[in-house]
Design brief:
Helix content is 34%, strand content 28%. The chain has helices at residues 46-53, 75-81, 97-107, 112-125, 141-153, 171-186, 198-204, 222-226, 267-279, 291-299; strands at residues 5-14, 20-30, 35-40, 61-66, 69-70, 82-85, 159-163, 190-195, 207-212, 215-220, 233-238, 253-256, 259-264, 283-288. Bound molecules: adenosine-5'-triphosphate and magnesium ion (MG). The site of magnesium ion has 4 residues, from helix 1.
Amino acid sequence: MVEAVKTVELSKIYRGKEPVEALKEVSFSVAKGELFTLLGQNGAGKTTFLRIISTQLLQTGGEASVLGYDVLTQPEQVRRHISIVPQDVATYGNFTPWEYAYYFSMLRGMTTSKAKEDAERALKAVELWDLRNRPCATLSGGEKKRAIIASALSSNADVYMLDEPTSGLDAVARRNVWAVLREIVEEGKTILLTTHIMEEAEMVSDRLAIIHKGSVVAEGSPDQIKKMTKEKFRVVIEGDLKALGLSENGNHVARFGNKNVIYIKDEDEAVELVAKSLKMGLKAETATVTLEDAFVKLVGGDLD
Ligand SMILES: Nc1ncnc2c1ncn2[C@@H]1O[C@H](COP(=O)(O)OP(=O)(O)OP(=O)(O)O)[C@@H](O)[C@H]1O
Ligand SMILES: [Mg+2]
């Protein structure tokens, strides 16, 4: 079966006075109909990866294909099937959200009525329908971003490549976007997105890859990623750990002022620590590790 996106040892070196190795032999596949997320710190290589597979940037090594079309030798075919939201994108001030959504659909060769239908659906999905005829210059930052998302969504592509689409959106707007992304995937389309929002990655992704300094360090479903860390439980304690006889050293404790997060392997041990803390009058609770915990530990090299 042809994968939606496939890379084999994809590498990128930005050549300049000081060459930067932005991608180091990255190999993975995104299946058709999957929502796949790339997670990584600033500078990890996410945008570089998306720009290469969307034919905007040439790799320096390895191979990449979209729906079986090679990005180097068949860029036209790749472009025909993809829709992108770039990380840093400015709107044309005198374009309206309606024009964005409608023209992008028309540019894809849709009929007028289909383009209208797609534009309406996309603008409603990002809650811009009431603002559809306002010039973008008069919209807020988040509203402009939603206009760009609507234009990408109304394009009827097979593979969507979205570089931090919800950055700058408020919590309600973000959830609307999550809902529409899941709808698109349920319709059989493929989405590859990057995000820094762990809740987003956890809520919407079928699978994700953690990319660190240009290499993939973990890949799997959100649940599988969470299970990759040595410690599967977190205890949050408010107060002085010394009173509990706990050391604050090592990477098993993360301290934020008065609040401490302690990572623990064994569930019974976590429950015991909570009980002990409560007895001493400290606020304490335990839960399984979050995707954010796992991410921080994995990029810190704490693999099981
Ligand atoms: N045009 C360029 N020339 C030289 N180095 C570059 C260029 N673009 C990016 N880089 C470097 O390549 C690395 C990867 O950058 P990239 O933009 O892919 O990261 P990112 O994961 O998208 O980060 P962010 O989360 O901040 O958007 C970084 O070290 C960056 O400084
Ligand atoms: Mg980026």
